[in-house]
Amino acid sequence: MNDDARREKLLFDELIEIEDAAARAAFLDQRCPDPELRRRLEELLALQEPAEALLGAAPTLSPDEFESYAGAGGRAEHPGTLIGRYKLVRRLGAGGCGVVYLAEQQEPVRRQVALKIIRLGMDTEHVIARFELERQALAIMDHPNIARVLDAGATEAGRPYFVMELVQGVRITEYCARNRLSTEQRLNLFIQVCHALQHAHQKGIIHRDIKPSNILVETHDGHPVPKVIDFGIAKAIEETQGGRASLTVQLLFIGTPAYMSPEQTSLGNPDLDTRSDIYSLGVLLHELLVGRPPFDPRELEAAGLEGMRRILCEREAPRPSQALASLAPDELRTIADQHRVDPARLISAVEGDLDWIVATALEKDRRRRYETAYGMAMDLRRHLANELVSARPPSRVYRFGKLVRRNRVAFVAGALVLLSLLAGLGTSTWLLLREREARREQARLLMIAEAGEQIAQAAVLLTYNKRVEADTIVASIPASLLRPSLECAQVLRDLGEWHALSGRWPEAARRYFDLAQVIIRVDDSDSDKVSFNLMPAGTAILENGDMGAYDAFRRDILARFPRSSNPMPAEQVIKASLLAPAPPDILAALAPLVGTVEASVDSAAPPTSDNPYLGAWRCFALALYELRRNRPEAALVWCDRSERYANVNATREISVNLVRAMALARIGGDETAKRLVAESRARVEQRFLSPIEGWEPANNILWFDWINARLLLREATQAVP
User: Fold this and answer.
1) Would you say residue 711 has pLDDT above 50?
2) Tens of pLDDT along 122-173?
3) Are residues 116 and 56 in the same domain?
4) pLDDT of residue 237
């Protein structure tokens, strides 16, 4: 394709984005003084019937495809045509190599869908391969923010098509402007887009054309839902069978210049990865904040191919706050009004974190960008929560500013104390003490903030499986500075489990003990989510042989869960507290939780519970409780009830048999007790012939269930002579 043809294509790409007919005419008047060029553009535009942007209404074509596109006049399909079980209603738009129709599915259900089919004149071997790749790419994805594939097939002429859910939304930028979304609302919408791209990347798919017209927003139950569409130029990260995924051809220019990553400007570049989409996400975020992409599309078009490549690869993109400050006053007021703030507040809101987040996504060197779309979303969530973002250099002034915004009440109180000291200096002995206390508190809060930043860094490292680095960071944080949050709990749990599976019990016990201290301070209504961490924590602490730490652990969790109407956390607290014999005060404190679990157990014989797994374990917990109370007959009753559930679980069977053996030994059933202990020992020793790290979970059996069975085996070996 020569320069004239390339310019024609770039003009058409820009023209197709303009929906208003008058605006299109004005664009042609201004940008197309050449009558012949204008005539060709109008002919191409006639092929693109006006409709809402759907599945890539702005085509992005290779040179050969563009020429075919310009020359394609008629088409085989038309409204009323029946393709399989789909009746075409009207043409909605055209993408790079496909035409999109509104269609009605005839059976087995009647509904409206979007049907995309290869364009007439575009069915070359290469284009069909690209179309097939798009179909396969969408078919393997299942995410609420990605348009779903419903069906696929081929016409009688052999031209492939696929059927998608009908997305009747508007471009994300248009939706935000039309509904005057605040900056926070825009970020929350953008985070959903990041999660959708993360899902695609995990499936091995790079989109390669992220732009506003490929992200449509629908309203469901009053809530905006973005949908990522048009994977027509997606590229598989991994080679698929037969090499069909490797479809990038030399001299094939793919992408939309204003949203294109620097590495995409290298024609035929096969070395593209998911970080190319991260760059495009940065451009989109810049546009959501500023109202325009960082580089002017008209300047890129006028610069020609080499000039465009030079701009994208060499010129630094302006920070969003700089771009806002450079706008004309009237334009800045318009943008600020769309964010529902005054211009000064808009610039202030964007300056800082959001500048750094966008700059990180737009790095020329992709090694310095966010590694994943999830990482970018996490930074935006931290910004919204007034936490430290990983994209920004963590200076002390920055950390302190974040601390102030998260702890406004504490700092306002400290400021009032300081003002009081200045006003009443003459009688300041008492006030001086308060000042010192406030300063100590501020210093403590700053250290807590720094610890929170370190936990956030460890969480990011864990997403990349960098456990050693994450553990080194966490090991340097004093336990007293750990913030009670589910993020902190998850980091400690992941590291504790990593140490446990590798048999490093002292390290595992430390992480799990710290986890327990975090859990008991987490304010979360979903107590089951919190208490689920108790079992592996108690197991690791006791397996490490530190009975003092285990006793402190179970007293702490009993104080956190003194009673509960939810049998799930009640059962977990009972078992975690009774992995070793307990003193009378702990047994007495467990009584309310025991009542909750008893009330949840099916009394039928045989049991009719819908969840035999839960019922069997709850009966075991009650058997263990009665054993610890030295009521062996009651323990045997609960052992019998546990075994009546129709559930096969090796660790539960072994644990019940060991409790039964210890109960029988106390009432004279020594021979049966010895047999049960011997059988249990054989099964446990067989399991531990292989390292824990290599175990695959099966039938709801978790690694700590086997450790608990081994703990009970050691106790039963001592109790049964």
Assistant:
1) yes
2) 555 555 566 666 667 667 788 889 988 788 787 877 777 888 888 888 999 9
3) yes
4) 41
Q: What is the CATH number of the domain that holds 204?
A: 1.10.510.10
Which of the following is catalytic: 3, 13, 209, 342? 209
- Find out whether 662 and 720 touch, Cβ atoms under 8 Å: yes
Burial category of 269 from C-beta neighbours within 10 Å (exposed 0-12, middle 13-18, buried 19 and up):
middle
Helix axes 486-501, 534-543, angle to 10 degrees: 40
**Dihedral sign of CA atoms 519, 525, 529, 531 in order:** positive
**Residue 475 φ then ψ, to 5°:** -65, -25
Domain termination site, one of 463, 482, 506:
463
CATH number at residue 642: 1.25.40
> Which residues form the domain of 10?
1-47
Same domain, 298 and 330: yes
Model confidence pTM above 0.70: no
Question: Last residue of some domain: 344, 362, 385?
Answer: 385
CA–CA gap between residue 400 and residue 329 (Å, rounded): 33
Q: Which of 106, 101, 97, 166 is nearest to 135 (CA)?
A: 97
Shared-domain flag, residues 17 and 71: no
Total domains present in the chain: 5
Q: Which residue has the tokens 């995924």?
A: 245
Is 102 within 8 Å of 92 (Cβ atoms)?
yes
pLDDT tens string 597-634: 999 887 766 676 667 778 889 999 999 999 999 999 99
221 counts as catalytic: no
Q: What is the mean pLDDT of residues 206-228?
A: 90
